Amino acid sequence: MITINEHYLKLQASYLFSDIAKRVAAFQEQNPEIEIIKLGIGDVTRPLPRACIDAFHKAVEEMASEASFRGYGPEQGYAFLREAIAANDFQARGADIQADEIFVSDGAKCDTGNIQELFSQDIKIAIPDPVYPVYLDTNVMAGRTGAYVDGRYQGIVYLDSTKENNFVPALPREKVDLIYLCFPNNPTGSTISTAELKTWVDYAREHQALILFDAAYEIFIRDQSLPHTIYEIEGAKEVAIEFRSYSKSAGFTGTRCAYTVIPKECTAYDRNGGRQPLHSLWNRRHCTKFNGVSYPVQRAAEAVYSEEGKTQTRELADYYLHNAASVRRAMQDLGFFFVGGENSPYVWINGGRDSWDFFDMLLNKAGVVCTPGAGFGRCGNGYIRISAFNSHEKVEKAMKRLKDALS
Ligand code: MLT
């Protein structure tokens, strides 16, 4: 008799963004005349930068001729892309990361979801609340949690991110082994200072723990004092894995390319207390389960690092930051408490009521889709997240509708 992985039954009915999409589709069916403005899921709307498109086209043409055609590429990614990443995203910032410590992939969602396979079942995991649901759900699927009780999974150490701590969680009181951090943060848009990030690195070093640092929103950092990579912090290479994505930085949500950095010094312990390099374990997994990102997509990603690519991706991020500023202004006018939107495409707003009620109200009264904060965890209740990923026109229109509906 075939039996299931019972841990799946502990999961909430559906993935947050699928749930929202279903509610929005039902609303649209009942109200076909309303033009819905989507500021919910963080999905980009602007076209790929010209430099990426040109490189993409050129690489597709190469695939059309026998002399330049490419079959399977290296599972870890082509050297041209890994070298460009190491030089631009790390070495240029004084972080000593080498090309062979980079694993190119088809998404940070997959990488942050899959990485937990490297660790044993009985580790203690610390996860922020609110949080990008993937970190939590993949550990639930793997059987590292107990049941879901009162909005939380038993066995997880939740790191509350609240107004009181400026949405940067405090170090856990108990000893944990694996820590998920994301800055600039999804969903709150909050940022972490170098000094704060250092306390986490120091904690991980002291407790033989590992930090999984999701930096998918790094391109939006404008405050020059903020760290762009965890490897700017001394000692992080031994205790941190970093995830990056071209989804938000270059508009690749539909093109798919990301990467994970696992420094060679980064280790975890085996049952005998020996240190095992995570780089070789992930390499083994990657080669077994993944056949690499397509050649044209990797060429398009490489173009992000050309002079034109750098200018164009910066302009792209500025475009969305302009929207985030409009959202912030509207929330200020409405008198809501909010954070984010300055070094992040997300604005986290306290609507003073249940987040799903607020979500429904905005949809029904203004035709605007946001993301209910409660979907990101218990500490998200009372909040909604508004994403800046849309056109200037639509964001302005949405803010006007919100003001009309709420004031
Ligand atoms: C979000 O809306 O939180 C993001 O789009 C999720 C993702 O990048 O997978």
Automatic annotation (TrEMBL):
Pathway: Amino-acid biosynthesis; L-lysine biosynthesis via DAP pathway; LL-2,6-diaminopimelate from (S)-tetrahydrodipicolinate (aminotransferase route): step 1/1. GO terms for molecular function: L,L-diaminopimelate aminotransferase activity; pyridoxal phosphate binding. Keywords: Aminotransferase, Pyridoxal phosphate, Transferase. The keyword Chaperone does not apply. The lineage of its organism: Bacteria, Pseudomonadati, Thermodesulfobacteriota, Desulfobulbia, Desulfobulbales. Pfam families: Aminotran_1_2 (PF00155). Residues 35-402 form the Aminotransferase class I/classII large domain. This is LL-diaminopimelate aminotransferase. It comes from the Bacteria. The keyword Transferase applies. GO terms for biological process: lysine biosynthetic process via diaminopimelate. Its cofactor is pyridoxal 5'-phosphate. CDD domains: AAT_like. Its EC number is 2.6.1.83. It is an enzyme of class 2 (transferase).
